User: What shape does this take?
Amino acid sequence: MKFYFKILKNYIDGKIDIIKLKKEIEEKSFEVENFNKDFIEVDILPNRFPDAANFWGFSKEVSNLLNLKLKKLEIDFKEKIKEKINVNVKVNSFYTLRLVRNVKNSNSRDWLTDVLRLYDQKSINFLVDLSNFIMLELGTPVHIFDFDKIKPPIQIRFAKKGEKFIGLDQKEYILSSEDLVIADSLGPIALAGILGGDRARVDLNTKNIAIEIASFPQDLIYRTQRKLKLFTEAGFRFERTVPQSRVILAANRICNFLKNFDIGPLFVNKKVEEPKEIVFNFKDIEYLGIKIKKDDFKKIMKKLKFEINEFKKDVFLIKKDPDRQDIEISEDILDEIVRIYGYKKIKSKPIDPNFKVKNDPIYDVENLIRETALFLGFDEVITYSFIGDKDLDLLKNKKIFNGECVEILNPTRPEFKFFRPTLFIGLLRSSDLNLGYFNKVNIFEIGRVAYIENGKIIQKIKFGAMQSSRTKEDLVLFKGKIDSFFEKIGLDFEIKDNLIYLNNKNAGFIFVDDNLISNGSVFYFEIDLNDILENFEKEKEIKFVEIPKFPATFRDISFYILSNINYETIEKLIYDVGGKIVENVEFLDYFIKDGKISYTLRIVFRSKERTLKEEEVDKVFEEIKKEISKLQVELRS
Amino acid sequence: MNWEEDIKKLKIEFEEKLRKIKTKEELDNVVLEFLKRKGKLAQLKNYFNLLKDEEKKIFGIKFNELKNYIEKEIKRLNESFKETLDSKKFYNLILSWPGKKQYIGSIHILNRAKKEIIKIFNEIGFSAIDSPEIVNEYENFDSLRIPKYHPARDLWSTLWTTKKNILLRTHTSAFQVPYLLKNLPPIRAIFIGKVYRYEATDRRHEIQFNQIEGLYIDKENKVTISQLKWVFEYFFSRFFERKANVRLRPSYFPFVEPGFEVDLKCICKKGCNICSNTGFIEIAGAGKVHPYVLKQAKLDPRFYNGFAFGCGLERILMIKYNIPDIRYFLSGDLRFIKSI
Assistant: This one.
């Protein structure tokens, strides 16, 4: 809110040093958004809005900070008539209403229109302008009804479902039973705390008025404003609450401007709530890390107009300034002390660094996996956690994800409609983008995914790695990376039907596709970090294996694969035919020619008892070759 | 008979051949051609007998000049071939050239920073704890004293899910109460992770970004703002690799009291873009954990106390590396990721 120095002068005695004021405000009260020789604009957060977002309250703050005296607010007037309007207040509100007869409405005088102009408000007529001025001055919304247009009795009640209301803006609103209205015998005359009604509008012919100043429940105003998408200055203030103490002050203050008319007595539906006393332990100042003398503490309290009473040594009872709705507990008192005393006087003090540290074990898994992926040549990306309808269709068509997604109620864009159930989409988008700049793209992401299972939201951390490439053959390289990945992190895995199993539990999947990116292939695998962690926790027994005493002999065998023969078949055959002397079978190399893939395997022969003879190995190797050649393969060597 | 001319010609011929030599073998051929017994030099020597005595002397001088020259050049070249065959020199040559690289991927800057930050906080006793991103309304708001139908909630614009009361956490503080319910103080913890806001994106705003949350709760010992200030100084000094000056300023967060903003003194002398010419950069929010929050975690505020703080990860990275636009982080663009 903007505060003009020429207005503040009306409330503060003495010269305002505006440079010092800016510094003090920033250090001790609010963020300064704008500042020049005419005004200071500050950001008043919701807690201080009720007391400080008005001329009077801000002046109080300024007088505290600059040690200046506050002028007395003119609130004198005389009640001339006895007539009191009775109001039936059916809901929890603090409500005042006062009748003033024989008023003469007119255009406003310059001082008033000038103030309103500074706040971008148009002058309407004296009475309306005055109510707007009081709101700026004291923070209390004021509504004035033309009393001759009202048919008492007056009630404060919830609207009936479907009840219609025409506001000062000439628009019709259809209300619900959660909206609070001021009504007479004909229906609503105001949407409480938000907007006056058209029917009891004050104009230049108005003779008799009812002045309403109140404090309505903030949650009701908050809901109604949002439901009707009707946001007014009054509503804004009621959402942040209006102190009862200010209601009474405003009810008197406004009469000071109406002294020439016949002012009636004030209707108030209940007593002003006395602020509760706060117990404050002086020793709690230790929390601030500063040392303050008791006298200084008392001075600060006095400045703030908080009454204190030391009822026991070092224990105070504090009665706050009733305007300060935000002060409720001893911590709030600490807040006041530290800001007025000055945050800048707090010196830093080390904490004892000796404290047992144990990071979440998932971070160890994350770090190991990340290092591994980086060394395998994958770049790390981080993508949005969201996907759209089209993405979900794609996941379903490609059978990557078939379950129920967590849906966003208010997505900022259609592509962000669901929380991602897999990292696939983000990686695909990133691959597509990067293929414009790079020939081959190998990327991975570690992040949370979510989906719904049996009505419950499941959140998991996944690792997803994608290779996009112009050549299909690169799948052999990608598969090699998957193999190396698990070898490096030290877990055995199995692949069945493109699903990855760790210890017989499905922990991830592999996906290959030719049509997702223009003239290239996409290879992808995804795995669950928690499953990896679980398998780490089942720590494997590590046993010493004796180093072989006798030398090994190698034979390499190369063949084209002609039909869908899986590796296990070949591997089993080699062990079966070769018998005891086959120690190991290893992948050595591959190549692709005319759409056929050829693999070269190395067979390691070794005996535990003796050195094998070449002829002996040759004989077994020939036997193996013979058996393999019976399969759908074409031997090359 | 012009022997002078022939000497010149032979020199030119030799030099031309020399230039073309690429291998030791070719060099050997040239040696044979010029220096062997019936080679070109020997042929030239035949002139000698045909010359007059006075010319013989001059011829002798010129011939020897050429012969010495040829021998010297061949020796020089021979040496250089020897050099390439010497493996030590061969290695040195290769080392002076670029090698064929094994491609190693680049870590994303956010995760490199996350690792670094965890390390820094570990040094002063804080453990890093993983926390969920989809939470309920109570965890994100009510447990933190941000009631329904209250404008304080408007400080956090929220992405809701279609499931009742379930939302994407707007701040890492949503994990304060759930964590405290499961872990008895004294505790020192940080939660680093993604948070989400319903927001229009621009250079400084994203709907998805990361926060670092710190929580320090002690039993009976009073945790002070002085200590909190020290934690900030320690962290920012380590993170920014320079001495960090920290300023505290009053502010409001419903779940701490007193609550304040933490500003970092900018490195600029006279004001710059980063600090909007104020000399200070808003960098974190912090405060003493509100007794209400402790009670939500079933901790008695008479015995337990502590502080909490929160800080935007992208924000401090943008400051540290001068990154002009927050949207780079999630762009998925490897040109960005590899560059930083």
